C-alpha cells in the first residue's frame, strides 16, 4: 500500500514563499513520476509541475519562473518551492505519484492561501 503525505501549506501574503513537501511510503517502483496538481474553488484540478525519477522537470506556464519542483529519491519525497506567490495561486495542492496505469496515487491535499 502506497501512501502520500503532504505538508507545508498555509497562509502567505502576495509575494511570499512556501515550500510544500510530499513523502511517499510503501512499495514504490523506482522509475516513477511525481507531480503537483492544484484545485481552486469552482475550478478543475490542474497540473502544476512534474519531475521524473531522473529529475527531468516541466511546469505549467502560470508558474514558470516562480515554482521549482525537486525530489529526494532516497527519501521518496518531492518538494515544491513556491516563490512570488499570487492570489491566483490559492488552491488545494495535491501530490501525485505514478509509474503505470495501475499505480497512480494521490495525497490528501494541503491548502495554500495567498492573501493580504
Structure characterization notes:
The protein is mainly β. The radius of gyration is 14 Å and the shape is globular. Strand 9 and strand 10 (103-106) form a beta hairpin. Helix content is 0%, strand content 55%. The protein has strands spanning 3-7, 10-12, 18-25, 33-39, 46-52, 57-59, 67-72, 77-82, 91-100, 103-106, 110-114. It is built from no helices and eleven strands. The strands form two sheets. Strands 2, 4, 5, 6, 9, 10 and 11 form a seven-stranded mixed beta sheet that branches. It has a four-stranded antiparallel beta sheet with strand order 1-3-8-7, with no helix packed on it. The termini are far apart. The mean pLDDT is 96.
General shape: globular
Q: Distance N terminus to C terminus? A: 40 Å
User: Helical stretch count?
Assistant: 0
Chain-averaged pLDDT: 96
Please report which band the strand proportion falls in: under 5%, 5-15%, 15-25%, 25-35%, 35-45% or over 45%.
over 45%
The quaternary structure here is single chain
**Rg from alpha-carbon coordinates:** 14 Å
The H/E string reads EEEEEEEEEEE
Tally the beta strands: 11
Please give the share of residues in helix.
Answer: under 10%
| Helix-and-strand structural type | mainly beta
**Biggest β-sheet, characterized?**
7 strands, mixed
Low-confidence parts, pLDDT < 50 over ≥5 residues?
Answer: none
